[in-house]
């Protein structure tokens, strides 16, 4: 790869430096505990030398003779493959071919690769508005646990993780971090080629919501949009995942958005496999993932998310990923960084272009370089390529039939309507806002919301499900100014499903001239659009959150500019109100939901990552007390973290 170095390394931006310092101080005890666990795991043996002869014989019994010999000698790296393949998900169907490519490349590099295990992968696009969607968020921690099962055989010196979509990459990374002594590379499948334009798709959805088009016409439009192998091309959670793996240095440069089943995609997969051999323990380039994902790298991930208008789901997932590495971040950190990080992209739903247009215009290599040159990213981080993020400011090209070559990212954007440099951003902030008040704390994605719609004051209309909202909409009961409050949608209530069904209806009402907004303890994800929405309200109603005190007709003020989420009710009246309750029995059974009760009972708040696991704990009780003191000083801390077992 070609070296990419600045003439003069820029000073880090003062806000990025301040947020990083605050996170580092806040995480000092739990990060130290995590690194202690990592060191202990490494000392206990990260590969086959720790296994008995019987253990080892079971581990390679079905292997080809030549590979079995390598494993017997215990000298060359053994690389685990953990895959989210299934052929129902368009984004994961291409992964079927990857293990064969990986095994051949690892073998040529002198190692051995084994398919260690598969993890579940569900599609939010299929389950939207369906009972199965209530398993979606919890599938992330299930994937992390399945990853742990795959790696528990202790046969491996490094691991390759194959996954793309919503909860899958975060789950794989959380699982990887609980085996933080192992090097890790992530291998994407790439986006499908572009289909129907995003503006046309949105127009047809709104017409269907208005009853002006039938189901057949809608299905034809959706089939023209989602039409081939690969990731959906809008900039939702799946493609935000891929950008994050690029900017965190867990992908090879430029790997995120190369389309599936192409020679370059296959060559990148083989190159990643070879790199896994190079950085595996106990070699000289040994690079454990638990050291890659540190405080600076987590800040880089937040900056990248903000600069590209990525999915609001990562205000949950990045918190959970950080927690798995002993790092504590919160929405204050996102909010402060958002004020300093300019928006460099316009990708649907924040613009009209899709992810393929973004990649063609310069892609993540361009974004990383622009942010580094502005001092908005930490360059001095460890990645799979070494100890500088600047090595990832490159684009991948194919030389010959199978060889990948890297070149510096383009000096200028290929399309200013999609991608811009730091000197000419689309906006001077990252488009993510923290709002708070007597209704709790929530996040707003305003990058696609016009300034005149970012502040709404209107009576509250209360709904306990998105189905109840849609019933009122189709009955013509919502043609007025209002703030829709959709409650009992948090992780403890029903697993925190995404509420995408609300988007076209709310957009129609806003287009008709009504002042409307959404407030919910549920999720909207990367598809948050042009209607103001305060989402992930925390604490949720089912955990005693104040949103449960709201009554129909209460005047509510939602203001992204001032950071306000407030019920305009006299303090004495508000204090005297009792929490609303609702019977959630219907959300407890059917479509496998009864199997996930343990998650609903144990899950932390959205701002703490909506996790079923806690922060790493030191071994001594005295240190645990110190952790309690540190965490108690932080708002909305998850006290359960202090009593759960260490990683």
TrEMBL record:
Domain Dihydroxy-acid/6-phosphogluconate dehydratase N-terminal: 76-390
Key word 4Fe-4S present: yes
Documented EC number(s): 4.2.1.12
Matching InterPro entries: 6-phosphgluc_deHydtase, Dihydro-acid_dehy_C, DiOHA_6PGluconate_deHydtase_CS, ILV_EDD_C, ILV_EDD_N, IlvD/EDD_N
Cofactor: [4Fe-4S] cluster
Domain named Dihydroxy-acid/6-phosphogluconate dehydratase C-terminal: residues: 418-610
Co-factor remark: Binds 1 [4Fe-4S] cluster.
Binding residues for [4Fe-4S] cluster: 165, 232
Pathway connected to this protein: Carbohydrate metabolism; Entner-Doudoroff pathway
SUPFAM superfamilies: IlvD/EDD N-terminal domain-like (SSF143975), LeuD/IlvD-like (SSF52016)
Taxonomic superkingdom: Bacteria
Location of region: Disordered: 613-647
Bias (Basic and acidic residues): 623-634
Record field: catalytic activity: 6-phospho-D-gluconate = 2-dehydro-3-deoxy-6-phospho-D-gluconate + H2O
Glycoprotein listed as a keyword: no
Keywords: 4Fe-4S, Carbohydrate metabolism, Gluconate utilization, Iron, Iron-sulfur, Lyase, Metal-binding
Molecular function terms from GO: phosphogluconate dehydratase activity
Function: Catalyzes the dehydration of 6-phospho-D-gluconate to 2-dehydro-3-deoxy-6-phospho-D-gluconate.
Assigned protein family: Belongs to the IlvD/Edd family.
Protein's name in the database: Phosphogluconate dehydratase
The species this protein was found in: Undibacterium arcticum
Taxonomic lineage of the native organism: Bacteria, Pseudomonadati, Pseudomonadota, Betaproteobacteria, Burkholderiales
């Amino acid at each position: 790869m070609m070296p990419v170095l600045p003439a003069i390394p820029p000073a880090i931006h003062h806000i990025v430096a301040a947020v990083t310092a605050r996170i580092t101080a806040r995480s000092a005890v739990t990060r130290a505990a995590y690194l202690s666990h990592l060191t202990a795991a490494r000392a206990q043996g990260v590969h086959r030398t720790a296994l008995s002869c019987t253990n080892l014989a079971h581990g390679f019994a079905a292997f080809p003779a030549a590979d079995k010999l390598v494993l017997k000698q215990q000298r060359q790296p053994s690389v685990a493959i953990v895959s989210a393949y299934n052929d129902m998900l368009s984004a994961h169907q291409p992964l079927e071919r990857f293990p064969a490519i990986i095994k051949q490349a690892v073998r040529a590099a002198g190692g051995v690769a084994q398919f260690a295990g598969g993890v579940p992968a569900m599609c939010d696009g299929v389950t939207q508005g369906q009972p199965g969607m209530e398993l979606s968020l919890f599938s992330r921690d299930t994937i992390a646990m399945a990853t742990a099962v795959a790696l528990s055989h202790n046969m491996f010196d490094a691991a390759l993780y194959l996954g793309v979509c919503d909860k899958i990459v975060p789950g794989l990374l959380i699982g990887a971090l609980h085996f933080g002594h192992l090097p890790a590379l992530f291998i994407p499948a790439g986006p499908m080629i572009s289909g129907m334009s995003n503006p046309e798709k949105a127009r047809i959805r709104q017409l269907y919501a208005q009853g002006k088009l039938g189901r057949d016409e809608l299905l034809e439009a959706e089939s023209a949009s989602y039409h081939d192998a690969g990731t959906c091309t809008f900039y939702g959670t799946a493609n935000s995942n891929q950008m994050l793996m690029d900017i965190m240095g867990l992908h090879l440069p430029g790997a995120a958005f190369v389309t599936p089943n192409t020679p370059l995609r296959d060559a990148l997969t083989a190159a990643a496999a070879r790199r896994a051999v190079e950085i595996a323990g106990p070699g000289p380039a040994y690079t454990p993932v638990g050291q890659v994902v540190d405080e600076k790298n987590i800040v880089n991930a937040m900056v990248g998310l903000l600069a590209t208008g990525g999915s609001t789901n990562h205000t949950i997932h990045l918190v959970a990923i950080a927690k798995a590495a002993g790092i504590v971040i919160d929405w204050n950190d996102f909010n402060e960084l958002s004020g300093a990080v300019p928006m460099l992209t316009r990708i649907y739903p924040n613009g009209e272009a899709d992810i393929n247009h973004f990649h063609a215009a310069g892609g993540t290599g361009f974004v990383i370089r622009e942010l580094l040159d502005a001092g908005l990213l930490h360059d001095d981080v460890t990645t799979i390529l070494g100890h500088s993020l600047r090595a990832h400011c490159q684009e991948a090209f194919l030389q010959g039939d199978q060889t990948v070559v890297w070149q510096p990212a383009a000096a200028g954007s290929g399309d200013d309507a999609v991608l811009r440099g730091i000197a000419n951003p689309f906006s001077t902030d990252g488009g993510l806002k923290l709002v708070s008040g007597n209704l709790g704390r929530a996040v707003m994605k305003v990058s696609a919301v016009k300034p005149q719609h970012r502040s709404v004051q209107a009576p509250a209309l209360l709904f306990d499900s998105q189905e109840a909202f849609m019933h009122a909409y189709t009955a013509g009961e919502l043609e007025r100014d209002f703030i829709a409050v959709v409650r009992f949608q948090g992780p403890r209530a029903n697993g925190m499903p995404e509420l995408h069904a609300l988007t076209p209806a709310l957009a129609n009402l806003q287009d008709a001239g009504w002042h409307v907004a959404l407030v919910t303890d549920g999720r909207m994800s990367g598809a948050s659009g042009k209607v103001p929405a305060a989402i992930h309200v925390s604490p949720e109603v089912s955990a005693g959150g104040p949103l449960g005190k709201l009554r129909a007709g209460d005047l509510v003020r939602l203001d992204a500019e001032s950071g306000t989420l407030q019920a305009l009710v006299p303090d004495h009246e508000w204090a005297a109100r009792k929490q609303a309750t609702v019977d959630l029995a219907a959300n407890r059974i059917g479509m496998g939901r009864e199997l996930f009760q343990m998650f609903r009972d144990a899950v932390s708040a959205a701002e703490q990552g909506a996790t079923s696991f806690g922060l790493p704990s030191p071994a001594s009780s005295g240190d645990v007390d110190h952790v309690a003191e540190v965490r108690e000083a932080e708002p909305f801390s998850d006290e359960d973290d202090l009593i759960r077992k260490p990683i």
